[in-house]
Amino acid sequence: MYKGKKVIVVLPAYNAALTLEKTYQEIPRDLVDEVILCDDASKDNTVDVARNIGIPHILMHESNKGYGGNQKSLYRKALELKGDIVIMLHPDYQYTPKLIPSMVNIIGEELYPVVLGSRILGKGALAGGMPMYKYIANRLLTMTQNFLVGYKLSEYHTGFRSFNRQVLETIPFEENSDDFVFDNEMLSQVIYAGFHIGEVTCPTKYFKEASSINLQRSIKYGLGVLRVSFGHLFQKWGLARLKRYQLNR
Predict the structure, then answer these.
(1) What's CA 108's distance to the chain center, in Å?
(2) Where are the domains of the chain?
(3) Residue 49, C-beta contacts closer than 8 angstroms, at least 6 positions apart
(4) What is the CATH code for 7-238?
(5) End-to-end CA separation in angstroms for the chain
(6) pTM, entire model
(7) Burial (Cβ within 10 Å: 0-12, 13-18, ≥19) of residue 52
């Protein structure tokens, strides 16, 4: 716990058998109360590895529900377990769990209710092996999103993010996509709800075993991001009434 606040790490897993143990070993268990893994019908032995290394809460989807569907299951379980600070971390070891104490401290001290691990602050992205086309797409999409949603972040596309309980209870994340654009929809909801977002510099690693989407899925994702950003703008201007912005106040 951190000052009486229960800390939970959630791991959305798909074919993460080769990197899961290394990720789990770096999670600071003296600070983190619970770890939840959701396996999205992996084709490898991710669940066996999770059991062998002692992850206490393992959820399993019988069929693949997608990246967003995976996170929905995890956030539901984290709220059920009364988590006050919930950190979403990819188990592919692309992001270091060693930043968890910093993220917990920022939320626990009530500086920000949402904290992102940014690969773009500093020079970590390219130094860590991010492909140039992904870096350029990240920068262009982020610039466009900042303009359309009226906020300023270094990136919207990180897979390392943390929330306090109030945020997860306020935004209707169940209304979001089950696909990769889920992450962007969540941040759009957070900004629309008026929650402030902090960022910490996060080194990243691109290697063979780390998860990544191909060019075709990347294009689909980029188009989805633009759809979300324009939807946010139209909702803010009163030109749309989208269910994902009907906040739980």
Answers:
(1) 18
(2) 7-238
(3) 16, 17, 20, 21
(4) 3.90.550.10
(5) 27
(6) 0.93
(7) exposed
